[in-house]
Amino acid sequence: MDAAAARSLPGSTPRGFDPGPVRSGLEAWKRRWEDRLAGWRRLAAGKGRLAIGIASCTLCACAATEGPQGPEGPTGPDPEGGPGVPALGAGASLNGAVPFPADNPWNLDISSEPVDPNSSTLIASCGLRNLHPDFGTVWQGAPIGIPYVVVPGSQPRVSVSFHYADESDPGPYPIPADAPIEGGASSSGDRHVIVLDRDGWVLYELFDARPLDGGASWEAGSGAIFDLSSSALRPAGWTSADAAGLPIFPGLVRYDEVVEEGEIRHALRFTCPRTRRAYVHPARHWASSDADPDLPPMGMRVRLKASFEVSGFPPEVRVILRAMKTYGMFLADNGSPWYVSGAPDARWDDDGLGALKTVPSSAFEVVRMPPPVTP
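and the corresponding structure tokens:
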């Protein structure tokens, strides 16, 4: 907890505590206080991991001296994190933290928004088939899904050269030499690399990433940097590490949310095989030469119909389906029809996740879109 947050709770500042040494290392957390406090309450109520008296002097003293302080903190980076403070490492838990502000499009409840008048046609254009979970444990020797790694603010930055440099953020990027690559080190696929700087609350994403000289530097197709405390978009017409110019990480289904938290509080990411040469907010980029108005534009948002019954699904699948009803999914890339993106984790139950394959695309509807951006 930063000093300002500690002083906001009556009686929470321990006697003799000097906030000065840690204030600079926690400046980026000020705007995340509400998420952190919500995380404490949720864990205290549902998991017994904290005493209900979250405002006690003892707890705040612990948060002030043992939490993530960055390189200037009294104890250095805390690998386990805490409520609202992500842990460190590959596939680490965010401990209830949610990227981007509450009013960011990724985090908005769209369950009561009107349906797009062309919804049925757009749904069919993506394919009349069932969902497919594009994440899980391991398939053909490689983790299934798009991996990520959480690093401290002290992680050394390295240079990255880009093929699409004119639409990439130059960096440098805090990429560990052993950062996980989508599909594995020898993958011929998209090879996304996703790095979350916990202390700066900044997201770094690469497409077609390849380490050079053992990770001393990297090369990639494109790269994007997102301030997770801001809702700023990329410049109009710019790609990112994703075709739609959107961040990837906020749209992933993650084990820590589904199983540990029991709730996803953001929209998800999915793909369609054919898209339109157009995009809608919050997307910033198209990836097609086809102007057919019956094809979906990048950034199209779909949601699971409120009438779709989810009670008979496994618990982890119910969590995912409830998020699809509340927050929906953004069309973010060209790919296999109705593939839902997520992060790999050895703890996933692949058989349980397989129940998603029984959910038909006809159970979805398109949320009404603004006029698309076209050439």
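(Above: one complete record from the training split.) The radius of gyration is 21 Å.
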